[in-house]
Automatic annotation (TrEMBL):
Gene3D superfamilies linked to this entry: 2,3-Dihydroxybiphenyl 1,2-Dioxygenase, domain 1
Short name of any one Pfam family annotated for the protein: Glyoxalase
Protein name: VOC family protein
Tree of life domain: Bacteria
Native species: Fibrella aquatilis
Domain VOC positions: 6-116
SUPFAM superfamilies: Glyoxalase/Bleomycin resistance protein/Dihydroxybiphenyl dioxygenase
PROSITE patterns for the chain: VOC (PS51819)
InterPro entries: Glyas_Bleomycin-R_OHBP_Dase, Glyas_Fos-R_dOase_dom, VOC_core
Length: 118
């Protein structure tokens, strides 16, 4: 059984060319603190409560990269359990300090599983 710890972050898609407008909305209107850094695929990250909100430009298509990310206690065990159940697993860019992989549910929703490096 996969041991979930918490919801870690949510990635929302924004239209191409709208990063500046998104940054202004989420900092000036929503009052969120941006997390500095060179994040994967030009994403911008914000602290929101005890999780993070990630925003990234995306061309609309049938399978979005939007996703929720769940921290798990043992990433290898989660990967093995899902693979044994026939769930296809995919990978993305590396993020310092985190190991991760992705699945899609039967409805096309993308889900990230991650574990922080210790």
């Amino acid at each position: 059984m996969i041991h979930f710890i918490r919801l870690d972050h949510i990635l929302l898609s924004i239209p191409e060319g709208q990063t500046t407008n998104a940054r202004a909305f989420y900092t000036d209107v929503m009052g969120l603190a941006e997390i500095p850094g060179n994040h994967p695929s030009g994403a911008i990250w914000f602290d929101i409560g005890d999780i993070q909100l990630h925003l990234r430009e995306e061309i609309a298509g049938p399978l979005s990269l939007r996703h929720s990310a769940f921290e798990v206690a043992n990433l290898d065990e989660a990967r093995q359990e899902l693979a044994e159940k026939g769930v296809p697993i995919s990978y993305s860019t590396d993020i310092d300090g985190r190991q991760r992989f992705f699945i899609r549910d039967p409805f096309g929703n993308r889900i990230e599983f991650l574990q922080y490096d210790k």
